[in-house]
Specification:
- The complex is a heterotrimer of chains A (440), B (280) and C (290).
- Chain A has 440 residues and is α/β, with parallel strands linked by helices.
- Chain A has 16 helices and 15 strands.
- Chain A has two domains: 152 residues, 3-Layer(aba) Sandwich (D-Maltodextrin-Binding Protein, domain 2), CATH 3.40.190; 210 residues, D-Maltodextrin-Binding Protein, domain 2 (3-Layer(aba) Sandwich).
- In chain A, the strands form four sheets. In chain A, strands 7, 8, 9, 10, 12 and 14 form a six-stranded mixed β-sheet that branches.
- In chain B, helix 9 packs across helix 13.
- Chain C has 290 residues and is mainly alpha-helical.
- The relative contact order of chain C is 0.14.
- The chains are: A alpha/beta (440), B mainly alpha (280), C mainly alpha (290).
- At the B-C interface, helix 1, helix 3, helix 4, helix 5 and helix 6 of B face helix 1, helix 3, helix 4, helix 5 and helix 6 of C.
Chain lengths: 440, 280, 290
């Protein structure tokens, strides 16, 4: 018997010899190409590190379209994309930050992410004056600055939404809640019909935190940002407005607002519940507006997706038009990039008004951080238009979601403990204490 | 007499029952996986244990094969693992020979030191190794996988090799030395053929340990150049989050090579594992 | 011959590759870990030396405590659920013989050759409350409500089931080999004495299997300590750290929370624990044998 194993092994050995012979040499030549800024024929390789793994739908498609355009217009430039979903992306980003960032990267203009990154000086400074004509919405660059210097550009205006299935609502005689009490009642009705009321990606932690942000905006109104930044600075979240917000969240969970097992399910699972018609609503940011154009989703659901923001809470300071929105995600260039000029050129190319904004708008991705009014095509989905109106009519905008307002440790602890407080394994007081301590 | 036979047959039924129940538990999830991989995504939401698809969707596999980069990753896996196995065999055999047969002061110290590696949890070295590989610019190259794969298979291989070497009589070597062989020829021409069973055990153990590894790979690699088979699954779930059936197909597809090879080489692998595990 | 076998240069050339790999990939990283464990390094910028602060914090860290407790639970699960079943099945397999023997042996081992990446995602789907296999089975038995297997209270057991399931073939195979190595003469003697199957199993098989059981128990405890991949993909340590394990936790701290220094401190304690447990188990079992 051993003869056969050995024979197999020997074939393997020889095969491996042949394969590594060519594999090794090609790897070597690739490396030399990416390390030298421009070889004889002016070839440049740009490495783009992205948090959008789905390259065929939504924002990832838009990004890929721009990359393809750029490569078509600049035949000497080759762009390599590495894409991971958000959690994995952030992990890998930090690993990269130790040394050797890819040339163009996705970033978030929020303290939890950017503080340490900028301290380490891994991102290249950009010249703010270059972007005067790019139509960035007032204030949208603020999160990407440190000491008055600009290090990145925002990609989207994100709004925290509750998507709902209009047809399902009509068929069952449900209506969009305008107050929190109506929402609670609606949850009861939907549950009674044997459908999951709100699909929630609770396994990741951050979607619940952005959801909580919307609640707190309705509780604290325009005081939201100040209340949170004071709490982070003092390491003390024991404020009436925060406590009430968590209580609202808890009450919703207790009423069965989220699907069974929400605290262990991931993004895709939660979204699929909604897009397969098993959940009536889906709590997520406006970047998922592209669901309305995603042909993998059955048509009678896709065309009936609408959205609203968290309803008004009686006694709360926030009105219906105080919304939870921020300019979070964006792009930056690595400080030690060997092809920095090309990278910045590509970055600027992406932000040319007819790229990110236009493509994004046409693909129903949601709102960019730039002025998009000139791209109305008349072809927009109703979902897109309604979200645009929300932003247009907003009386106040929250800014950074609560989990991203503090240091990275705060974010990690909050996103883990929010699972515990929502599912009842941790008391609200312990939750408040734990996240307060994480700020210190 | 009659009673005894009856009792015997009841016992037999019980034995068979135990075996079959365990087999169902072990294998049914995999059958379920293959079943759903041939459905459309919508069919999954029907109740019932297995679904008979309206139309068998081989196209799930086509998409999975193409977009999951299966061919490329499978080839990477094969190259990396075959190389790791060969390197481990040679290094462990040489070291085992030096540590058991040859005469030098530090030999037991060196051997104990290297055997200590068996106790070190692989994952504790993820952070510092990442830093080291970055420093030497070998992240995202084949070395970033080969070095740790070899290093963490080495202690066990060394242990197995020394065990086998001890059971080989010295007379053969003596004869060879008298014939004028040098140490290298003794190792590679006299000892190596005798070590065949332990070499195949080491090869199988090393293969099984590293074939499915992805934690180090996902930390040390960034581009698809050297990514291994598990990445077909890991990357796919983000890309096709809204299409469950295709996700199932890619899972089935990336599990298939190992399962097929195992079924074909079942006897040898079983023997190798048994030998390696009991001795190790 | 002795002279030939004492040639320093030859010895060095034989040992050097192994030693080099060992030092580069195992020893050096550990030393680096020890160094970073004393700093507040975030992974970027320059590290600052903070003495034992990380270790003091680790001592009070509830999540780390929870990971050790989970390892303990897992080890219990292996020893008291997986192993007894494995021994019995191995003995039955040995008894049944013929084609069936090799067929079942092959079937039991199949999950073992499948990547954890596939296993973890597969079980994520099996546990899914909406279309998962387990809930469908429950529905078939008339249970109306969907059960959330990965909830705060049950997630750790759900993880346990996956690991027991995945590792079953391995444990079984080792016991099976142990049983095969038992001298058939002993069984014949037992049969002459009129012992039935169970009596033989308890009085002949089990006592003779003691060394194999000891090896398996040691391996179970170590692998319970080292657990990471399945949890990393299946639950990410959640909900709320309820399925946290040391390896996963150090990874999260270093790469997610920007606490590379603290992550390394966890790594150092983790290594020390693994070494200590192995040494203790080996001495305990050795003493018993004497």
């Amino acid at each position: 018997m051993n003869k056969r194993v050995l024979a197999l092994l020997m074939t393997g050995v020889m095969l491996a010899g042949v394969l590594t012979g060519c594999g090794g040499s090609s790897a070597g030549s690739n490396q030399s190409a990416s390390n030298t800024e421009a070889s004889a024929d002016g070839e440049v390789t740009l490495k783009v590190f992205s948090n959008l793994p789905d390259r065929k739908n939504g924002q990832g498609l838009v990004e890929q379209m721009i990359i393809d355009d750029y490569m078509a217009e600049n035949p000497n430039v080759k762009i390599e994309v590495e894409a991971l979903d958000e959690e994995a992306y952030k992990t890998k980003f930090k690993a990269y930050a130790m040394d050797g960032m890819p040339d163009v990267v996705s970033i978030w203009g929020q303290p939890s992410f950017l503080d340490e990154v900028l301290d380490a000086g891994v991102l290249a400074e950009l010249n703010e004056d270059d972007y005067k004509d790019y139509g960035f919405i007032a204030g949208s660059l603020e999160g990407f600055k440190k000491d008055g210097k600009l290090y990145g550009l925002p990609r989207n205006t994100d709004v925290q939404l509750i998507y709902y299935n209009q047809k399902m609502f009509d068929d069952n005689g449900w209506s969009v809640p305008t107050t929190y009490d109506e929402l609670l009642k609606l949850v009861g009705d939907i549950k009674a019909a044997g459908i999951a009321p709100i699909a929630m990606d609770g396994g990741d932690g951050w979607p619940m935190a952005t959801f909580l942000t919307d609640i707190m905006v309705k509780v604290a109104g325009t005081d939201y940002a100040k209340s949170v930044s004071d709490s982070v600075a003092a390491g003390n979240f024991d404020t009436p407005e925060f406590k009430q917000s968590v209580e609202v969240l808890k009450q919703l969970v207790d009423a069965g607002a989220f699907q069974t097992g929400y605290d262990a399910q991931d993004y895709g699972t939660a979204m699929n519940l909604f897009t397969n018609g098993q959940a009536a609503m889906f709590a997520m940011g406006s970047w998922e507006c592209s669901m309305a154009k995603n042909e993998d989703i059955p048509e009678d659901i896709r065309t009936n997706i609408r959205a609203f923001t968290f309803p008004v809470i009686v006694g709360g300071k926030g009105g219906a038009n105080d919304i939870a929105a921020w300019n979070g995600g964006g792009y930056a260039v690595a400080a030690d990039s060997a092809v920095k000029d090309e990278a910045i050129k590509f970055l600027n190319y992406m932000y040319q008004p007819d790229k990110l904004s236009k493509y994004g708008w046409e693909n129903g991705v949601g709102m960019s951080a730039q002025d998009q009014t000139s791209y109305l095509t008349g072809d927009e989905t109703e979902l897109q238009l309604s979200v645009m109106d929300m932003v247009k009519n907003a009386t106040s905008v929250s800014g950074t979601p609560i989990n991203d307002c503090g240091p990275a440790t705060f974010k990690t602890v909050m996103e883990s403990e929010i699972q515990g407080v929502s599912n009842g394994s941790e008391s609200i007081d312990d939750f408040i204490k734990a996240i307060g301590e994480a700020c210190k | 007499m009659n009673e005894k036979r009856k009792k015997g047959s009841i016992g037999k039924i019980l034995l068979w029952a135990i075996l079959i129940i365990m087999a169902v538990i072990q294998i049914f999830p995999l059958i379920w996986l293959v079943d759903f991989s041939l459905c459309s995504s919508n069919e999954m939401f029907t109740s019932g244990l297995l679904v008979i698809p309206e139309r068998i969707r081989w196209d799930n596999y086509v998409i999975a094969f193409r977009d999951g980069n299966v061919m490329h990753y499978l080839l990477n896996s094969i190259i990396i693992n075959v190389l790791a196995v060969i390197i481990v065999i040679f290094i462990s055999m040489m070291a085992a020979f030096a540590c058991t047969r040859m005469h030098w002061k530090l030999r037991s110290f060196v051997m104990t030191l290297m055997l200590l590696g068996m106790m070190i949890p692989i994952h504790a070295t993820l952070l510092p190794n990442y830093k080291i590989y970055n420093y030497f610019h070998i992240t995202d190259t084949i070395w970033a996988l080969l070095i740790p794969y070899v290093a963490f298979s080495l202690p066990q291989a060394l242990f197995l090799m020394t065990g086998f070497l001890a059971s080989i009589p010295k007379e053969l070597e003596e004869a060879a030395v008298i014939d004028g062989c040098g140490v290298y020829r003794v190792v590679f021409q006299v000892i190596m053929p005798l070590l065949k069973p332990s070499i195949s055990t080491v090869a199988i153990m090393t293969f099984l340990n590293n074939w499915n590894e992805f934690m180090m790979a996902s930390t040390y690699l960034s581009t698809p150049k050297w990514k291994t088979l598990p990445f077909s699954v890991l990357e796919f779930t983000g890309q096709y989050s809204s299409n469950y059936a295709v996700q199932f197909a890619v899972m089935a597809l990336s599990a298939a090579p190992a399962v097929i090879v195992y079924i074909v080489l079942n006897k040898h692998i079983t023997k190798g594992v048994a030998m390696g595990a009991v001795k190790g | 011959m002795r002279k030939l076998y004492s040639n320093k240069k030859v010895i060095l050339s034989l040992v050097a590759p192994g030693l080099l790999v060992f030092i580069c990939a195992i020893l050096a990283p550990i030393c680096l870990s020890v160094y970073y464990g004393f700093t507040d390094y975030s992974g970027m910028g320059t590290p600052k030396f903070i003495g034992l602060q990380n270790y003091v914090e680790l001592f009070h860290d509830a999540a780390f405590g929870r990971s050790l407790f989970n390892s303990f639970l897992l080890a219990l699960g292996f020893i008291f659920i997986q192993h007894p079943i494995a021994i019995v099945v191995a003995a039955v397999l040995d008894k049944i013989g013929g084609k069936a023997e090799s067929f079942f042996r092959c079937v039991y081992f199949i999950p073992n050759v499948i990547s954890v990446a596939v296993i973890a995602y597969l079980w994520k789907f099996i546990y899914n409350p909406d279309f998962g296999l387990l809930n469908n089975i429950l529905h078939a038995f008339g249970v109306k409500e969907s059960v959330n297997f990965l909830s705060q209270q049950t997630a750790i057991y759900a993880v346990l089931v996956v690991l027991i399931w995945h590792g079953f073939g391995w444990g079984m195979l080792i016991y099976y080999t142990g049983i095969k190595n038992i001298d058939p003469v002993l069984y014949e003697a037992a049969a002459v004495d009129g012992a039935g199957w169970w009596t033989t199993f308890f009085h002949v098989t089990l006592p003779l299997m003691k060394p194999v059981i000891q090896i398996n128990v040691t391996m179970a405890i170590i692998s319970a300590l080292k657990q990471m991949e399945t949890v990393y993909l299946l639950t990410g340590g959640g909900p709320a750290n309820s399925t946290q394990f040391a390896a996963n936790y150090l990874y999260q701290q270093a790469f997610k929370a920007f606490r590379y220094g603290y992550g390394n401190a966890i790594g150092v304690v983790f290594i020390a624990l693994c070494v200590a447990v192995t040494v203790i188990l080996n001495t305990v079992f050795k003493e018993k044998e004497v």
